[in-house]
Write a structure and sequence with these properties.
- The protein is α+β, with helices and mostly antiparallel strands and about 130 residues long.
- It has helices at about 35-45, 70-75, 95-115; strands at about 5-10, 15-20, 50-55.
- It has a three-stranded mixed β-sheet, with helices on one face.
- Strand 2 (about 15-20), helix 1 and strand 3 (about 50-55) form a beta-alpha-beta unit.
Amino acid sequence: ALLGLAWAGHHGDHAHYDAGASTRDTALKAGIAYPLLWDLIVWSHAHGALWFDFGGVTVPADLAADPLAGISAFKRSFTKTLVEVGQEWVYEPHPTIAAAAERARGATEWLRRLLPSSRAGVRDAHGTT
C-alpha cells in the first residue's frame, strides 16, 4: 500500500532530488510528497549537505496555464535565490555522420542475415543464440 516515494542523490556538500511519485487515490486531503521531500532535506543535512537542489522550476510567466505552477511554488517557498545549475542539451549529429551510421547499421543487419551459421553455438548475455 505504497502511497508515495521520493529519491535523492547525495554529493558531499549538496544533495539533489532525483525522482518521486505519489498516488492521488487516498482519503488523505494532504500532499503526500511534501513530507517525503522534507525528510530528504533533513537526511541530506544530517549527512553533511549544505544545500539541497529540488530540480527545475518553471518560469512564472503564465501561472494559470502552467500545470507545474503548484510544484514550482512549493520549491520556491524554501528560498528567494534561484540558481541555474544545469541545462538540457540534445545531440544532433551532422547529417553526413548520421547517414554513415545508418549505412553501417544496415550493413551489419545484412551480414547477420547472410551469415547466420557463423553465430551457431555463440550465446549472448541472455543465453540465446
